[in-house]
Amino acid sequence: MHLSLETLLVPHDNALVVKSGRALTVGYIGPIDCVLCFRCVSKSWCALIDSPEFAKLHLKHSPKTNSNFWLLLRQTEYFGYKKRCFYPLNIDSLNSRVVTPRELTNPLRSSEFDTKIIGSCNGLLLISNTVDEIAIWNPSTGKYKKLPVLSVDREEDGHIRFGFGYDVVNNDYKVVRIVQFVGTEKGSLCSDVRVYSLKSNSWKGIDKEFPYYVRNKEEPGAYLNGALHWVVSSEIKIPLQQLIVAFDLETDMCRIVPHPPYTNERFSVKLEVLGGCLCTFHSFWDDFFL
């Protein structure tokens, strides 16, 4: 008799009830590293936990618990030696007096380049050494996927921004790359927008116009509700107008999102996602306002 995943794994509070016939087994659905330990029980359990359906089910119920939030610490120098490492730190462990995080194996580790996190979504990270070396990485399982190389013409003259998110309708993780060139003529701007699909493992160009200048070079797009969000300006002038644009990962369409009033247009506005809401915080040099 074939049992569906929903029959095998029934959510119950913060646990999963594994149902097989009349037998019930209860297992905690907390940290993914604990769940992965059950892969050793049997081949069928291993196949079940490795299945995309289980990943969706775990992701569906993870937000209902408070124990699945992690900080990812990045160490770039160690006693004078260049050692670029990542360490996961469970938020709950911060209440402990002594915390010893374990080092993650960086799939792009290089003695020449500093690996940066340029996006995150549903526990997956978008990491990069250079604009030509990018990967989607699951730090919980160690699995990763390198993206096809997409070179940038006149890289030294352009400003490159990235965003990483999930297309719910098409069940596909996508990467958005925006390369912008500011012309010599006053206010002229040229944007090249490309979208990578994990499902097809390919890049595509976006023909639709992107008439906005993305403000913060170091800030990746903030993902929320199927869209990536950036702080942008409609004109290149000082002081820069600060708007919020949303790029829909299903339709590749852009729209302006209403935002709270800014106290000072000269302040730098940054975006984050907190508690299912898009949040703005303003900074002026080293001062921050939420």
UniProtKB/TrEMBL annotation:
<protein>
    <submittedName>
        <fullName>F-box protein CPR30-like</fullName>
    </submittedName>
</protein>
<dbReference type="InterPro" id="IPR050796">
    <property type="entry name" value="SCF_F-box_component"/>
</dbReference>
<dbReference type="InterPro" id="IPR036047">
    <property type="entry name" value="F-box-like_dom_sf"/>
</dbReference>
<dbReference type="Pfam" id="PF07734">
    <property type="entry name" value="FBA_1"/>
</dbReference>
<dbReference type="InterPro" id="IPR011043">
    <property type="entry name" value="Gal_Oxase/kelch_b-propeller"/>
</dbReference>
<dbReference type="InterPro" id="IPR017451">
    <property type="entry name" value="F-box-assoc_interact_dom"/>
</dbReference>
<dbReference type="InterPro" id="IPR006527">
    <property type="entry name" value="F-box-assoc_dom_typ1"/>
</dbReference>
